[in-house]
Amino acid sequence: MRLDPRLGGAAALRLLLAAHVVAAFEPITVGIAIGAASVLTGYLSYKDLYCRFAECCRSERPLNASALKQDLEEKLFGQHLATEVIVKALTGFKNNKNPKKPLTLSLHGWAGTGKNFVSQIVAENLHPKGLKSNFVHLFVSTLHFPHEQHIKLYQARNCYPDQLQRWIRGNVSACAGSVFIFDEMDKLHPGVIDAIKPFLDYYEQIDGVSYRKAIFIFLSNAGGDLITKTALDFWRAGRKREDIQLKDLEAVLSVGVFNNKHSGLWHSGLIDRNLIDYFIPFLPLEYRHVKMCVRAEMKARGSAVDEDVVTRVAEEMTFFPKDEKIYSDKGCKTVQSRLDFY
């Protein structure tokens, strides 16, 4: 981007802001103001100039797969499957100029295993502002639909489908590459999520809006017991957790959450219609992974890594099963608060 040496970025910004103020009064004047800014800054287009100072939807922006992989490998501990599948899924989807449907990922595992953290990393690699982006949208079931006792009333008034559909339609209309994160899926009333089924299906457009470049991510504790059972079976057989493959868990997960009334996907058409592209298991974390989390948190705080503190924090955690004590029952979820005591 070329800027006239006589006009600094601050001056260009003032012209841009002036154009926005004028926009409330007269579109023609807006064009003149933007045109002037474009000439003075090196014949930039309005969009180029605007996007220099404000966030723009860049649906066609290529994914830096190497950066995503590096982020996951360096910041996510004990989740080789999640790292592998997410890099593969996002790379393939973003490289496809004409996807037939949105990308839909369902992340499963106990609390503290990294699901929310991964959704944050994915958001940051798709939109520079990450979770603060205008094009990344977080839905929390216990926040947005907290009153279970009102569910029948909501359904009778068609509130659930209408609210969700309007929310998604409006955001995808603004940015085709919008990212939607549905947290606490296991606390969402059965059937609610099916309201968005048309948006995840193989439709070119719905009411003039294409959803094919959007990304939907579901986060759920449901299936954590199935994932733990598989991991424990491998451990007891003397096999490494890194030997666990997606095929060892994906089918079990999809069937398990489909038949689980508390999964948010109970008897869901999203599974029936194979609209969820990947069921991604997050394995329970071992003692060594908890120590990795402690070290990472200390570095994030700008503190020197004290291995004595690392060990003490890790040993304060509780582990299961009762006899073997292999897996942290809270993953790394309480590492931050426990580290506050040191």
Protein topology:
Blueprint lengths: L8 H15 L3 H14 L5 H8 L11 H11 L4 H16 L7 E6 L6 H12 L9 E5 H4 L6 H6 L2 H16 L4 E5 L13 H4 L14 E6 L3 H13 L13 H9 L10 H4 L5 E4 L5 H14 L6 H10 L2 E2 L6 E2 L6 H5 L3
Parallel strand pairs: 1-4, 1-5, 2-3, 3-4
Antiparallel strand pairs: 6-7
Helix pairs in contact: 1-2, 4-5, 4-6, 14-15
Family: Belongs to the ClpA/ClpB family. Torsin subfamily.
Pfam family, one: Torsin
Catalytic activity: ATP + H2O = ADP + phosphate + H(+)
Brief write-up:
The protein is an alpha/beta fold and 342 residues long.
Low-confidence stretches: 1-28
CATH class descriptor name of the largest domain: Alpha Beta
Termini distance?
Answer: 48 Å
Please give the share of residues in helix. 40-55%
Shape call: globular
Assign the CATH topology of the largest domain: Rossmann fold
Kindly describe this structure.
There is one protein chain. Helix 1 (9-23) packs antiparallel against helix 2 (27-40), helix 4 packs antiparallel against helix 5 (80-95) and helix 14 crosses helix 15. Mean pLDDT is 86; it is low at 1-28. The protein is of the alpha/beta class. It folds into two domains: 65-282, Rossmann fold, CATH 3.40.50.300; 287-340, no CATH class. It has 16 helices and seven strands.
